[in-house]
């Protein structure tokens, strides 16, 4: 099944823009305390993306989205630089948040909160994960301890969140909390909030192995945050369902973007191996090196096919929870192997900042944890195997 002409044309424009305009920004010194691009740099690149007609390319002028298969080819091209997804406005968490608000948000929420994300003038944060030390929600959202309670025509939210990507500098927040009382007691709710808000305090922004996303991964305290009732996303108690609407495509989008980065890392490593001479011949002619690059091609094709398969399932309207788990595991592990081989092929140069290869290695290592670590997805798949077995043997 071929990709549409419109998607191919958009992807080609994005690739040209990223390679010609954004790659030169990779050495730009405008970075925060741990190397992430500053908002000044992000907004400058987005202005150039707007002028080139490639800003938020997966959302069309009429507000409709490309299909997941179409989105895949576009986001893969955006990932040819670690800065590319930021520049064309398809980076996490914004891309996933835009998808969720487009699916569930009221007209007011779309106008007030979604529109500035789509036009690239604002960043967002998704407040779900909580500190493990306090027994909060990490890979298991049912452990959520942040609470919300209705007080007149406002909801009051209290809790603590951790690893909130982009919270520092975000203008739009989606806050997830568990209803403390009422008809939705025990169920999760989602709320849209303007940021910054004095009731949401950034406690700590740790230095992490990755640094591609502005604002880092903050720990925040939510202290008596008051949110008007009409800023609830969807219905009270349905937050876990909405999280799944967001998470399955978001996992896949991560695969798309980091696939593009690994394509570029492989290009750099291949160029190095063909130019570098050692022991009387080019590195590529040594089997130990050439075979690693050959294995990269195999893993890249496997990852591409898994992404396309999962995207096809999501395009049928399925939540694709199982498929996205399988794809996230398969692709993240394949991309890790590719990034590791690229470093190995380049030797000492591969662990320096002379190229993006070392950053890609770090980013992919973090990706294996984010949006659910490999082990959680395998555990979930194992549970499905057990359920299916029980169902097929119910009459035995």
Automatic annotation (TrEMBL):
* Keyword Electron transport among UniProt keywords: no
Checking PANTHER family in the record gives: ACYL-COA DEHYDROGENASE FAMILY MEMBER 11 (PTHR48083:SF13), MEDIUM-CHAIN SPECIFIC ACYL-COA DEHYDROGENASE, MITOCHONDRIAL-RELATED (PTHR48083)
The cofactors it requires, by name, are:
FAD
- Organism annotation: Novosphingobium tardum
The Gene Ontology terms for molecular function here are: oxidoreductase activity
Q: Does the keyword NAD apply?
A: no
Q: Which UniProt keywords apply?
A: FAD, Flavoprotein, Oxidoreductase
Which N-terminal residues, if any, form the signal peptide? Answer: none
Supply the EC number(s): 1.-.-.-
The Acyl-CoA oxidase/dehydrogenase middle domain sits at: 125-207
InterPro entries, per this entry? Acyl-CoA_dehydrogenase, Acyl-CoA_Oxase/DH_mid-dom, Acyl-CoA_Oxase/DH_mid-dom_sf, AcylCo_DH-like_C, AcylCo_DH/oxidase_C, AcylCoA_DH/ox_N_sf, AcylCoA_DH/oxidase_NM_dom_sf
Q: Hey, which family's this protein in?
A: Belongs to the acyl-CoA dehydrogenase family.
List residues of the Acyl-CoA dehydrogenase/oxidase C-terminal domain. Answer: 237-384
Q: Could you identify this protein by its name?
A: Acyl-CoA dehydrogenase family protein
Q: Which residues form a coiled coil?
A: none
């Amino acid at each position: 099944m071929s990709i549409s002409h419109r998607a191919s044309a958009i992807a080609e424009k994005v690739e040209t823009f990223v390679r010609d305009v954004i790659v030169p920004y990779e050495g730009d010194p405008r970075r925060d305390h741990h190397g992430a691009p500053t908002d000044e740099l992000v907004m400058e690149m987005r202005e150039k993306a707007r002028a080139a007609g490639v800003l938020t390319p997966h959302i069309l002028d009429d507000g409709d989205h490309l299909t997941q298969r179409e989105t895949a080819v576009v986001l893969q091209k955006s990932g040819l630089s670690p800065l590319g997804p930021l520049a064309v406005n398809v980076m996490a968490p914004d891309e996933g948040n835009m998808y969720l608000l487009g699916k569930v948000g009221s007209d007011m929420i779309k106008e007030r909160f979604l529109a500035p994300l789509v036009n690239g003038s604002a960043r967002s944060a998704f407040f779900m994960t909580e500190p493990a030390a306090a027994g909060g929600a990490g890979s298991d959202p049912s452990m959520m301890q942040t609470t919300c309670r209705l007080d007149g025509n406002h909801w009051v939210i209290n809790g603590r969140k951790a690893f909130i990507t982009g919270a520092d500098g975000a203008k739009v927040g989606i806050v997830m909390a568990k209803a403390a009382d009422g008809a939705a007691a025990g169920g999760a709710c989602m709320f849209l909030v303007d940021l910054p808000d004095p009731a949401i305090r950034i406690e700590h922004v740790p230095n992490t192995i990755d640094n591609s996303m502005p604002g880092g991964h903050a720990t925040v305290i939510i202290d008596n945050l008051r949110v008007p009732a009409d800023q609830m996303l969807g219905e009270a108690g349905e937050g876990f369902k909405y999280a799944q609407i967001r998470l399955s495509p978001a996992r896949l989008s991560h695969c798309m973007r980091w696939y593009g980065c690994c394509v570029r890392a492989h290009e750099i490593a291949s160029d190095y191996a063909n130019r570098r001479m050692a022991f009387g011949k080019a590195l590529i002619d040594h089997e130990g090196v050439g075979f690693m690059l050959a294995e990269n091609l195999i893993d890249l094709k496997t990852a591409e096919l898994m992404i396309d398969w999962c995207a096809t399932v999501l395009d049928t309207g399925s939540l694709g929870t199982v498929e996205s788990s399988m794809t996230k595991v398969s692709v993240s592990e394949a991309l890790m192997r590719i990034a590791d081989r690229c470093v190995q092929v380049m030797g000492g140069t591969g662990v320096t900042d002379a190229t993006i290869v070392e950053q890609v290695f770090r980013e992919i290592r973090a990706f294996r944890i984010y949006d659910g670590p490999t082990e959680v997805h395998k555990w979930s798949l194992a549970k499905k195997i057990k359920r299916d077995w029980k169902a097929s043997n119910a009459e035995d």
